[in-house]
Amino acid sequence: MDKSFFTQHISKQFNEELEDIVNRVMTMGGLVEQQLADAMAALAEGDNDKAEKVVTRDYQINAMEVELDDECTHILARRQPTASDLRLVMAVIKTITDLERIGDEAERIGRMALHLLDQDRRLSPMDEIAALGEHVRQMLHSALDAFARMDPEAAVRTAQMDINADSQYEMIVRELLKRMKQDPDAIPRVMDIVWAARSLERIGDRSRNICEYVVYFVKGKDVRHTSFEKMAEEATGDRR
């Protein structure tokens, strides 16, 4: 973690509190990354042991979000932070919310994997789904890396990866729709794969969100619901 973005306060304890919440975000992020990797192994390879682990471990991510949210609330109450300190705490609160929801999506993929038969995998575009899974996993990893370094330019580059994720998702859905037209009896099982692919697409969206919070903290600009061009323009501006 790059500590250079921390404001040095008269209170050493305040510095330590801010560093601690960022460190804990990274720990939570690491667990979410592992959840996603295990969920993809379960989906693509039919690894039911990993699917079960993903489903049963989700409570750990939920607990970490609650603990971190509580700590941020206490910091806001005790320290009444302003300027960049306030933005940091708000960025952490928003990031842990998205990480918890990414964990939920990973759990959903794990549950879908438990329902699939080997035949479902053979007749579905599993190579393309695995490629989408790897793409969004890399997005998540890069978003967390940008957060750890509070690097807005890296955040913009990572956010732009969402364009490819959306394109891959749309291609997968088209292929699955073709299968459902050819074999209406397979629709209930194919829908499990559709929802798993949708979860991967949503993970890409939430990884982009984390990148937006990095720009918000460093530049003091809210770049949600803006174009990638506008996001890049704000990321290269002067820090406020």
Relevant terms:
mainly alpha; Methane Monooxygenase Hydroxylase, Chain G, domain 1; 9 helices; 0% strand; 240 residues; globular
Report on the architecture of this protein.
The protein has helices spanning 12-45, 48-79, 83-115, 118-122, 126-149, 152-159, 161-182, 187-219, 228-235. It is mainly alpha-helical. It has a single domain (10-235), classed as Methane Monooxygenase Hydroxylase, Chain G, domain 1, CATH 1.20.58.220. Helix 5 (126-149) packs antiparallel against helix 6 (152-159), helix 5 (126-149) packs parallel to helix 8 (187-219) and helix 7 runs antiparallel to helix 8 (187-219). The longest helix is centred in the N-terminal third of the chain and has 34 residues, at 12-45. The relative contact order is 0.13.
